[in-house]
Amino acid sequence: MHMKKHVARTNCHFCGYLCGLVATVEDGRVIALEPDPTRYPYDPQILAGCQRWRMNLDVLDSPRRVNHPLKRVGERGSGAWERVSWDAALDDIAVRLEALKDQHGPGTLASMIGGPHTSFWPLHRFMSLFGSPNNVGIGQICWNPRIWMDALTFGWTIEIDLTDETNTLLIWGTNPAESDNSVFWRHILKMAKGDATDIVVIDPRYTKAARLADVWLPIRPGTDCTLALALIHVVIAEDLIDHEFVREWCHGFDELCEHVRPFTPEHAEAVCGVPADDVRKVARLFARRPSALISGRGIDQIGRNVAPTHRARCILLAITGNLDRPGANCLAEPSEFVQELDLECTLENEDVLREHCLNTAHTPLQCYDGYDRIRSVMEPYGKRLPARYLTSAHPDLVLHAMESGQPYRIAALIVEATNPLLTYADTHRVYKALMGLDLLVVIDYYLTPTAQIADYVLPSAGAIERATFQAHGGVANFAYGGPAACAPYYERKTDYDIFRALACRLGQASRWPHETFEDACAATLEPTGMDWETYCEIGMCYQPPTYEKHLLPRDGADPMSAPRGFATTTGKVELASEALDCLGGERLPTPGENRRLCSADFVEERARDGWHHVELITGARKQPYNASMYLDNPRFRERYPAPLAEMSEETAADIGVAAGDTLAIATDKGEAYFKVALIDIRYGLIHVDYGWWHPEWDAADGRLGGMWESNVNVLTSCSLDQSEPMIGTWSYNALDCMAKKSDHELSWE
Ligand SMILES: Nc1nc2c(c(=O)[nH]1)N[C@H]1C(S)=C(S)[C@@H](COP(=O)(O)OP(=O)(O)OC[C@H]3O[C@@H](n4cnc5c(=O)[nH]c(N)nc54)[C@H](O)[C@@H]3O)O[C@H]1N2
Ligand SMILES: Nc1nc2c(c(=O)[nH]1)N[C@H]1C(S)=C(S)[C@@H](COP(=O)(O)OP(=O)(O)OC[C@H]3O[C@@H](n4cnc5c(=O)[nH]c(N)nc54)[C@H](O)[C@@H]3O)O[C@H]1N2
Ligand code: SF4
Ligand SMILES: [Mo]
């Protein structure tokens, strides 16, 4: 019988926007896709300007997609697979997990996740109920630093609130032209055309954002904390503070004044390599209320300095009165929909998780004890942060437990929506640890290099084939997404279905009451009063921002009750942090040494061979790619065919390379090859692309997609002793390397 053609709402998931699409579906197959400007993000120009959404149809039925569960039959990584049924795969995985748990304890299972490609709470629920705290995420280097420091300083996280009133927009270590390229970036372009808003960009590269700027500070990587303290110094010295807000609502101002005294603009010039007069200018611009600040990877991935830099950023916002005001930055509200903490089911098994937590002795904030401390401060204010991200295990400790069996053996790993052989630090080490596992399960769309060394590859259903509910851990009262257009093709399953099916085999059935992801999402929405159909129709569940919430009465029923204040130990914005103090951290932010990837011996040895010791940053976002994805799109590859090592003309001259040459880059950890490109960037600094492999190569040929050749993470390290001490952030920026012209012929063009 022939089914009728119908149209269905659905969403693109090739970046974080989850743009609304309309699908034409015939016989359960999507035959056409069109933009749907009637749903989030409500702007036809976004899809018009987007290079990716048209890939959706191809990706839905790409010959490279994994369509059935695969079980390894040959040697690990040899590329020999057997197609098995879901029941056979899940039964075997469940039995083996149970046996490993009996032998080594519940912590023996670890998980790895990547960027926000899917909803991760089903994985986290599974891990919580299994009893393992060992979820490794990209959190420490992408999301946690900002969330933690906002929460400790302000009692919750903040969002940027750009309006026509915004006097100055400070863009710090982020380049939305490439990483966002959508609503937000278009807003900035509009602002740059008018003259109501001054734009300041702090970035060692002369980015598209920097080109729009009234002031560009080409900072030396990793010195951002010093710069922030100098901005604070000027704001205080020139009496540009918001007196009333500081007097009534800030804790520790006198301590702060003392602390920033040595951080003069001249000191910043010496450390950060930016003119002292520009530092003064930026401080004055930013102190004009309202001004807004947005930050990104540039300060999220600077290792040792990440927490102090974010703390200094928070302090700058507070003393200039650019907090919770329109046109500045506003405090978000916890989600009204079911909170991530409850979705994760962490608290149900908290004691087991704490007992096996590897971080406790190492990162006093990023662990179950640290989380608890902060929870007890925030809970009286009705605020609860998600736990699994903010306690995620440090990769150095997890890899160590895989390598050495200490303090217990981690023998099994589930990898969901990430490609750690390309995107995690220290590829050689990750590779060795994963090769030594008893059980490696990868849930992905493709046979990525990581999937190629798995015991099982489980095929995940993509965006068009599943509902989406993006809630950013519930730290804002905002979720968006929509329904699936069709059932998953072939035997693919949604990530939710996979974890639920595994959970039910491991005695967790009662904690997974919702049969489908849609049902679970609909239940998540319930407290808001919005039903699933309405959510799908408008594409989001959203409350507009509100301001100066600390002034509202604490008791909603009694307008005369005392003001709410901030959800911190002191009820105020903590310029000096009591919370960090009691966890053994610093009350006020102090910059430290950046980590080095090259030991003195290594530098000396290579220098004798004509190598040059230079500064290194990695992974700047580039359209149309996303991390290790979309490299198999031939149109994209034509436009951007090879991984680049970018530097200024002067740096290239020093090293003795020209545009188009191959550059070898080496650190203590390994060596990789890139094509030289000349750009506007600080002298003496190289930027290197990340995520490069050959998805178009045969996944069975044992070459792992050529991932050793130009993989920047072959050079990086996650070692704990050089990570930030409270959270454990390692470094992808503010690094060093040895560089030399090479006659290696790149495989890319
Ligand atoms: N096209 C594309 N878009 C993406 C992604 C992608 O892979 N591709 N990934 C997504 C993800 S996971 C994330 S986290 C976001 C990240 O989004 P962003 O944070 O906007 O990342 P970038 O565009 O790389 O911008 C970071 C900037 O920081 C600068 N920088 C490097 N080191 C330093 C430093 O020490 N100090 C300062 N001040 N600046 C520095 C770099 O030169 C770079 O321009 O992008 C998301 N969007
Ligand atoms: N050197 C260096 N390393 C970095 C960074 C850097 O700047 N420099 N950036 C870091 C940052 S901020 C991040 S967020 C990470 C990003 O790192 P990852 O998230 O690991 O990067 P991707 O290459 O995007 O890998 C995503 C994988 O998930 C699969 N996938 C996509 N959607 C789904 C889904 O819905 N379900 C399932 N099961 N699979 C899916 C894709 O096919 C792909 O293989 O990289 C980090 N690593
Ligand atoms: S890639 Fe991003 S911006 Fe483009 S359509 Fe998809 S979700 Fe929207
Ligand atoms: Mo990220």
Structural summary, described in words:
This protein is α/β, with parallel strands linked by helices and 749 residues long. Helix content is 32%, strand content 17%. It has 29 helices and 27 strands. The protein has a seven-stranded mixed sheet with strand order 5-4-17-16-15-6-7. Strands 22-26-23-25-24-27 form a six-stranded mixed beta barrel. Helix 5 (144-154) crosses helix 15 (306-319), helix 9 crosses helix 13 and helix 9 (224-237) runs parallel beside helix 15 (306-319). The longest helix has 19 residues, at 86-104. The protein starts with 5 loop residues before the first strand and ends in a 7-residue tail after the last strand. The model has no long low-confidence stretch (mean pLDDT 96). The structure holds ligand MGD (2 copies), iron/sulfur cluster and molybdenum atom (MO).
